[in-house]
Amino acid sequence: MTDSPPRVLLITGASRGIGAACALRAAQAGWDVGVNFHRDEASAEQVAAQVRALGRRACALRADVAREGEIEAMFQRLDAELGPLGGLVNNAGIVDVAARVDEMSAARIARLFNVNVVGAFVCAREAVRRMSTRHGGRGGVIVNLSSAAARLGSPGIYVDYAASKAAIDNLTLGLAREVADEGIRVNGVRPGIIATDIHAASGMLQRAQAAVDAIPMKRLGTADEVAQAVAFLLSDAAGYMTGATLDVTGGR
Ligand code: NAD
């Protein structure tokens, strides 16, 4: 019988919104948490303090997930501060201002893909190098934040973002199968419209009524409702699930 995976989890972009909610749900489920942030250190330290108040260990870790060297340094610091990794939530993500494809610069599209896609790939790579039984690890679990946009395409608003999340869905599927016999499960969550700061740029919540009308449950979701789905996928209750992405969309 091999040891079970370590209960140390890294969540990217965890200083607010869905990532912060995931940190609290994970702490309640017994995970120690590395709280990655990009710029807002004070908020990340607050989330880390909330995790500690729940009786778990936590540390705030600065890294821009668009920069490979910063990601590598972040994983090394996590190893040093909390010990061997057992889980990753690829949550950091960005949306740009609403635009049509024929208005988008290559720089905008590249920046968005660097954060949302390349960042998630490189974080997954670092996690697999630590958790895979092939590399001497004790296994683990990865959850990727996709979006309902991956299936809707988001025409006229952010086709670039929707395409980046479709790439995440395929990362989930392909990586899950690649490491399925190495002790690692990989799953995803596709949130619908969740009331967080991410919508400040796109103006989505300014069109809130139209957005709500399009949701069968006639309300926006909360960050905690997404975090509960993530916590399920992290848990042994999802022990035979890999390569799956759950819709948390109010039926949208
Ligand atoms: P948010 O803007 O509140 O949080 C995003 C987090 O990512 C922030 O903490 C931000 O600092 C961090 N981040 C951004 N760029 C980063 C970088 N380069 N390096 C490190 N961290 C970075 O948004 P949210 O709604 O909590 O979004 C979390 C995830 O859920 C994202 O991947 C998003 O695409 C996805 N999602 C959100 C919604 C929604 O409606 N809110 C819907 C579908 C999917």
Automatic annotation (TrEMBL):
It comes from the Bacteria. Keywords: Oxidoreductase. One of its GO terms (molecular function) is oxidoreductase activity. InterPro entries: NAD(P)-bd_dom_sf, Sc_DH/Rdtase_CS, SDR_fam. Pfam families: adh_short_C2. The keyword Lyase does not apply. Belongs to the short-chain dehydrogenases/reductases (SDR) family. This is SDR family oxidoreductase.
